[in-house]
Amino acid sequence: MIANATQAPQALPGTAAPQVATAAVAATAAPGMTGAKAQAVTDPSAAQDRFLKLLVAQLNNQDPMNPLDNAQMTSQIAQINTVTGIQQLNQTMQRMAAQFDALQVMQGAALVGRSVMTEGSALSMAGKTGQGGFDLAQAATGVKVEIMTAGGQVLDSMDLGAQDAGRHEFSWDASHYAGATDGLQFRVTAANGAGALDATALSLSKISAVGAENGQLVLTLANGKNIGYSQIEALL
User: Fold this and answer.
1) Dihedral of the CA atoms 222, 228, 234, 236 (nearest 10)?
2) Fewer CB within 10 A of the terminal residue: the chain, N end or C end?
3) CATH code of domain 112-235
4) Closest C-alpha among 79, 80, 56, 78 to residue 68
5) Which is nearest to 15 in space by CA: 51, 58, 45, 44?
């Protein structure tokens, strides 16, 4: 029997038939397809329909002297069922991920307007008061905060004295400063006796918007910086 142009190629005598299931799987991964075509290709029901058509074509064109046995047919049906199940699982997980992103954004909306501390040295200005913070790995006998311009010029310094280990905040009175406050920075130095200690500068800012990217909650700060939720050191 000669197969017509719309049917699958005839199986050669003596060869096993798993090529049909393989062809059905390959069809679901055809590159370069977008939009409605890609959706039709990856749809589990459509893939199963294509498989059944290929299987019927193979049965119609098999070698009468070497027909497809029951074990081969059962194997092919098991393969397509496995592929279909995986595709359905992937689609379910994609829908769950989209719902999780939406839920994160809804919950994150409650953070809009809240102040947070993130790692950084930008000085937050509220009127004539500059604010910032820092983390100390261990207790310090002396801590100094320097206020600087964006170019690194020191404008003022504050001696905060001895400080315990942990997180601290500070305020700087800018009423005596007549220059532009945009871009002001601060630097924290800490010491324990004659030895220097690690001090992590923390910048204060407000959350102005929330969104989701790659399954992660993204916060937009008032200073224009985008951060992940895990980058928040403190929520005020």
Assistant:
1) 40
2) N
3) 2.60.40.4070
4) 56
5) 58
